[in-house]
Amino acid sequence: MSDTKARTAEQIEADIEATRVRLASTVDELVDRAHPKNVAKRQVEQAKAQVFDERGQLRTQKIVAVGGAAVGVLAVLLLIRRLVGRR
Fold first, then answer.
1. Dihedral sign for Cα atoms in the order 40, 41, 42, 45
2. 20-43 as b/e, with b when 16 or more CB fall inside 10 Å?
């Protein structure tokens, strides 16, 4: 610190206590964020945001795209299985 006045022991102790309180609050917030239930809840909210728009309407373009991709992957897997089964 660049204070030119000498600080009393009580002022230093008060600063240390204030720092402890801020640190404890920060640690509590980090523990809350990292709790598995809260992480899962955020993931579900993100997934819902991908499927529903701000008004709660289904985003049909995304659903169709994901469905089409799933059908494409399934078709490729079936083709590979069929080709491997012929040998």
1. positive
2. eeeeeeeeeeeeeeeeeeeeeeee
| DSSP reduced 3-state for 54 | coil
pLDDT of residue 27 exceeding 70 = yes
The pLDDT of residue 2: 55
Q: pTM for this structure?
A: 0.47
Write out the H or E segment, with its range, that includes residue 56: none
Opening angle at CA 32, ends 27 and 33, nearest 5 = 100
Length of the chain equals 87
Contact assessment for residue 63 and residue 52, using Cβ atoms and an 8 Å cutoff: no
Q: How far apart are CA 50 and CA 61, in angstroms?
A: 11
- Averaged confidence pLDDT in the chain: 90
